[in-house]
Amino acid sequence: PTTRDLTPYAGKTIRFAFFHSAYSGSGCSGTSFGWYVDDVQIEKSVPAFAGDFEQGWSQWSADNGVWQVGTPTAGPSACQGGAQCAGTVLDGNYPGDTDSRLISPSIQLPAVNTGEEIQLRFWQWFSYATANVADCDAGYVQVSVQDAGTGIWSAWATVGPATVYSSGWSPTTRDLTPYAGKTIRFAF
After folding, report:
1. Least C-beta-crowded within 10 Å: which of 4, 11, 124, 157?
2. Is pTM beyond 0.85 here?
3. What integer is the mean pLDDT of 101-114?
């Protein structure tokens, strides 16, 4: 699912539209199947977890040391919101053949009732040298669950599709409903 934040319009009467733009200028040609939209919803929610990187690492961590927190001087050259964000090397290219996770603090997810969902929402910007090529560089959102009895964390499970192409900062969601009521960590 794709989401857009309507918070700036809270308390206002609005209309929204899905605008299909078919430009026939230089370099644009042909037609295709177009755009389809279904199951549109407006939801009001209170985040169970909210985190930015304005105070540095806080309770976040990284394995294998590629992730950094600060102000980027390469890539997007600015954070989506505020002055600090997390990125794989803030001042240049990430090193080849180096896997690394940015790991959240542990979070106790709330239980849900029938018809309710838990969504992880975040903004992302990415650029991979081999975009859209199978088995090459990509980003994955992963989840690990803590066993309530032993306290042991499960292996990392990938949630949703890989991230392989971006044209700028974009809002993104991943469904965490299957983990409702459990203590989890998520990672990028």
Report:
1. 11
2. no
3. 91
